[in-house]
Design goal:
Blueprint: E1 8-14, E2 23-29, H1 42-46, H2 55-68, E3 71-77, H3 79-85, H4 87-101, E4 112-116, E5 127-130, H5 133-136, H6 138-159, H7 167-170, H8 176-185, H9 197-201
Parallel strand pairs: 1-4, 4-5
Antiparallel strand pairs: 1-2, 2-3
């Protein structure tokens, strides 16, 4: 904003390390009249990198943060697209979908996209990477929480279809219950079958 940008979007991904389900990318634009010289209050004072918040805290903050945003969206690349494209291109696809889902604004499109990490998985001329951005950049932290809660809700819904894999708790990430289910049942319809875990836990299921 000091550099003259009006609409600054934070971008973060979740689900890259999961064995099942989509990779998801959140984009969040905070209000352009937000006074950062004053102490933050409410949900903005509590928000952190989604990994540093409990699931209960993320769920509690989701609606207030979404309501505070000037605009926000979450895009996904499915498990099968992760297999077909590889993770790098799947992340770019999810980011592209998130940006395309951003609601139209009289203020126009974001002037700059602050992308968490050292690699620009958005691939946009407006992108600026921010190392540890989810810990030091407010808009990235908000995008992280919105993306994490959205993806977690999708995975909890999938638990009803595949109860043996305990997706309601592990959200598709590695866990002891997840490993046991794979060893006993093999992969389900939403597992990423090209991932290395398949060779260890489901060697005959590719």
């Amino acid at each position: 904003m000091k550099a003259g940008h009006r609409l600054v979007a934070g971008v973060d991904e979740v689900g890259r390390g999961a064995w099942a389900g989509p990779v998801s990318v959140g984009v969040a634009i905070l209000p352009f009249d937000l006074d950062m010289t004053r102490p933050l209050t409410g949900a903005l004072a509590e928000v952190r990198d989604s990994k540093q918040l409990s699931e209960q805290a993320r769920e509690r903050l989701f609606e207030p943060l979404a309501a505070l945003c000037h605009a926000w969206a979450v895009g996904h690349a499915s498990h099968s697209e992760c297999d077909e494209l590889g993770m790098s291109l799947a992340q770019r696809l999810a980011a592209s979908r998130a940006l395309s889902l951003m609601p139209a604004s009289d203020e126009g499109e974001p002037d700059v996209l602050l992308v968490d990490g050292g690699w620009d998985f958005v691939g946009d001329p407006r992108s600026v990477t921010v190392i540890s951005g989810d810990a030091i950049c407010l808009s990235i932290s908000v995008a992280s929480v919105l993306a994490k809660v959205t993806r977690d809700r999708l995975m909890r819904a999938e638990d009803e279809n595949f109860p043996a894999y305990d997706f309601i708790h592990n959200k598709g990430y590695p866990s002891s219950s997840h490993r046991m289910a794979l060893a006993g049942w093999g992969p389900c319809a939403i597992h990423r079958r090209s991932w290395a875990f398949m060779d260890t836990w489901c060697p005959f299921s590719r």
